[in-house]
Queue: 3 jobs
Job 1
Amino acid sequence: MPFQHIHNMNMKNINNKIKYNRQNGMAILLAVVVSSVVLIMAMSLANVAMKELILTSTTSNSDYAFYSADTGADCALYWDLTTTTSNFVTSSPANIYCAGGANSIPIEFTNSGSINVYHFTFVINTKEFADVTLTKDMSNGNTTVVSLGYNTNLPNSSGSVERREEITYTGPTS
C-alpha cells in the first residue's frame, strides 16, 4: 500500500506540473499577442506621424511658392502702376528692383503687333524664385500679369513647388 500511495503522489505531482506548464505556455502566448498588438499600434502611430510631417513640409513649401508668386506680381504692379512713368510702355525698359533687392533686374521685351510682352525673373531671400510675365495689349489697354512662384531658386529641382498668380487690369498704355 505505501507504494501505491507514493505512486499516486507522484502522479499528482506530474499532473500538477503539466497543468502548471500549460498555464506557463498560455502566459507566453498572451505576452506575445499583447506585444504584437502594442507593436502594431506603435507602428501605425509612427506612420501617421510621418505622414503629418510630410504634409506639413509640403504645406510650408506651397506657402513659400505662393508668397514668391505674390511678390513677383506685386513687383510688376509697382513698376507699372505706382512709378511716375510705367516701366512697361517702352520697347527698351530700364532695369527694376524687386523685394528690397540691391541688384537690378533686367527686363526682356518682345512685341507682336499691338501686344507688348515684358519678362523678368528674380530670386527672393536667396531661396525663393519668381518668374514674371507682364503682357500689355496696347489696342485696348488691358494688362495681364502672370507670376510663377517657386519655393526654391531651382524651379525644376526635386521638391520644387510652383504656384501661379494672374492679375488682369486696365492700366497705363503710355
Job 2
Amino acid sequence: MSDPPISNDPALDDAVRDSRFDNDIFSRPRPSLQAPPFAGFGIRALASLIDGFALVLVAVPLDLIFGASNELASTSGFLQFMISLFYQGYLPTTPLRGTFGKYLLNLKIETLDGQQINTLTSLRRLLLLLTVQPVLLMFPFNPQEPDLWAAIPTLICFAILLGDVLLVAIRPDRRALHDLIAGTCVRLYPPKADD
C-alpha cells in the first residue's frame, strides 16, 4: 500500500516521504554559502603597488619637511616607519580587512574561517614583510664591487621574497609565507552593488 500524494509534484512527495524516516536531520549535506575565491598573485601585486604609491605620497612630504638635516632625517624615517606600521598592521584589523589598495580591489585579509583578524595576527603577518623589504633596500648588491658577505642579507631576503611569490602562484589557496605564519588568507570578494 502506498502513501497518498502530498502534493502534485512526485519529486516533492518522495522528498517529504524520505524526510519522515530520517532520524538525523544533520546527516544530509546542507547547502552552504560558498566562500569567495582566494586572491591570486596578480591582483595582490596590484594592491601592493597601490599601497606603495599611497605610502610614497606620505613619505615625500615628510622627507621635504624633515629631510633638511641629518638629525631631522631620522625623525622622518621614524615617522614613515610608524605610518607604515599603522597602514599595514592596523588597517587589516578594521572593518576594511585590509589596506586601501586591497579595499579598492575588493580583497579582504581574514582568518581561514572567514573571520576578521586581530592585531596580534596582523602584526605576525606583517613581521616578515617588514624584515624583508627594508633589508632589500638597505643592502643592495653592487656587481661592480662584488662582496659576498655584504650580499648575503640581500640574497636571503630575495630568496624569502621569491618564495613568497612562488607560494602565491602555485598553492591552491594562494597563501604566501606571511599568510601561512599568521594563519590568514586573502580573498577576492565580488564588487558590492550600489543601492
Job 3
Amino acid sequence: MAADFSRKSIERAARLSVPHIMLFLMAALSMAAVPVPGAGIVKPFFVLMHVYYWSVNRPRLVPPALCFFTGLAMDILSGGALGVNAIILVAAQWTTQAQRRFLTAQPFITLWAVFGLIALAAGGVQWALTGLAGMNWPSPAPGIISVAATFFLFPFIALLLGAVHHILPVAHRKLS
C-alpha cells in the first residue's frame, strides 16, 4: 500500500504529534527543580498531569509503553533510581484508564480530586522506592510540597491540554 502524503494526512499527523511533543516538554519540566523560599526544592510532576489528562480523554495517545519509556528516560536523565518514574507513570496510566468510564462522566472538580489521590500515591511511591533503592529515606517534606504544587497546578495544565485536545482530529472510537 502506498503512503498517503496528502495535505490532509500530513496535517492530521502533525496534530496528533502535538500531545507527544508536549509529553516530552512536561517530562523536562518535571525534572527541573524550582527553589521555593522556605520550602526548599520543589519539582511539580508535570508529566503525571499529562498522562492523567490523556488517559481520561484520549488513552490511545499515552499507551503504557510510552509512559514506561518516558519514565525510564526521566530516571536516566535525572540520575534517579532506575524504573521509579516508569513504574509510577505506567501505574497512573493503568489506574486512570481502568476508571475512564467513571471519570469521563464526572465534573472537573471530581477529576481534580481523583488526580489529587493519584498524585499523592505517586509521591508516596516515589519517596518509598527512592528510599528503598538507596536504603536512605529522605525527608518527605519536599515530596509533600511537590505533590501539593502538582495538585494546585493541574487545573492550569488541564486548560492547556484541553486547548490541545480541541485541535486534535476527532476520534472515531467508543469509550474502551
